[in-house]
Amino acid sequence: MLYTYPALFYFDDTETEEVPYFVHFPDLENSATQGNNISDAIRMAVDLLGNLLTYYVEDGKHVPRPSNINDLSLVGNNPFKDDDFDFKFQVDKSFISMVTVDLDDFLDYNDPIELTLAIPKWADESGKRLHLHYSKALTDAIMQKTDEAH
To answer: Quick check: helix, strand or coil at residue 6?
Structure first.
């Protein structure tokens, strides 16, 4: 199942920073990573997002709803704004972007199990017409219900 969250990519190439990109997901606790360049920072962000969301799902925790990217700002959502830490970044090279992850690639217990279930005839006919993969449809529906329950 695909999940997409906004991430803040802060750039600082001063001498004190060995890795110039700092990435933060404002909707997720303890969500920081770094990258040597944009590609590396995005790859690291995808990996972090997948691991964090896997933690939420596997531990039965509420998966937070992603913020609207248009409501975020690099300054207003600075993860260090309430700390005594002087966080410097170059505004012209920093940006906000959506990051998407396929959680199926991260979940440890993704091995299929055999189940027998019954569905109404109309649902079977409709599913066949739509060429639905029943296992995927059921898995997606359970994930959606799990998200709604929290």
So the answer is: strand
Looking at residue 107, what is its pLDDT?
Answer: 82
- For 69-119, write each residue's pLDDT tens digit: 999 999 999 888 888 777 889 999 999 999 999 988 888 666 677 778 888
Q: Average pLDDT, whole number, for the chain?
A: 88
Cα separation, 40 vs 99, whole angstroms:
13
Extended strands (E) in 1-94: 2-11, 21-24, 32-35
Q: Which CATH architecture has domain 2-105?
A: 2-Layer Sandwich (3.30)
For the chain, the domains span: 2-105, 112-150
CA angle 93, 94, 99 (to 5 degrees): 130
Model confidence pTM above 0.70? yes
CA distance 147 to 150: 6
